[in-house]
Amino acid sequence: QEKTAKTPVVKWGQKPDRLYLTIPLPDVTQPEIKLQERSITFKGRSKGQEYEVKMKLLRGINLTASTHAVNQWSVSFDLPKLRKEPCWKRLLKSKKTYPWLKKDHDRWYTQECQNAKELWRETYFTKKMQGEDPSSGSEDEGETKDDGAPPDPKAKERKRWEGTLEEYRKRAVPRRKEQAKAKRRIS
């Protein structure tokens, strides 16, 4: 008869640019760890009991820079986020709460999270006041648009030029032919 795998406790913490996960299982044998951009799978055996957990993350992580370590007390993960951003409100894509998922207050950097949030807000409202789309991301950073195409480097310049032309057209003095037509219409 086969024992069913238990879900281990997962403690998580974060900084604006990285996540920290700890699975506090002593003497893990046969660990199977699979990292994907938006999910983490862990399987292992501790003190004769099978443990397994699959987590779908809220946003992506940088796989090439991610590391994990198995020691005699726990399995720990250091997972850089794809971008530095305000701290996530939750670890998982699902909004459900799970009894096995706990915040690791030793790895929770509240001040850094608050600074990142304030910086994000400042950038957002600055763009909004400049008439730019704040949700499009920073074009200066070379991000791609939703359709996967790279941003047009001249788009910002072209938009500014069109705005300047429109301003000049509003201020322009009408030509004489148009003035003559206007006088004929009046009389």
UniProtKB/TrEMBL annotation:
Query: Could you cite one Gene Ontology molecular function of this protein?
Result: Hsp90 protein binding
Single Gene Ontology BP term?
protein folding
- Where do the CS domain residues begin and end? 5-92
Region Disordered, residue ranges: 127-187
Identify the GO cellular component terms for this protein.
cytosol; nucleus
By its UniProt entry, which PROSITE patterns does this protein fall under? CS
Per UniProt, what is one Pfam family of this protein? Answer: CS
Q: Which domain of life is it from?
A: Eukaryota
List all Basic and acidic residues biased stretches: 145-181
> So what family is this one in?
Belongs to the p23/wos2 family.
Q: What is this protein called?
A: CS domain-containing protein
**What is the protein's species of origin?**
Spumella elongata
Give the organism's phylogenetic lineage: Eukaryota, Sar, Stramenopiles, Ochrophyta, Chrysophyceae
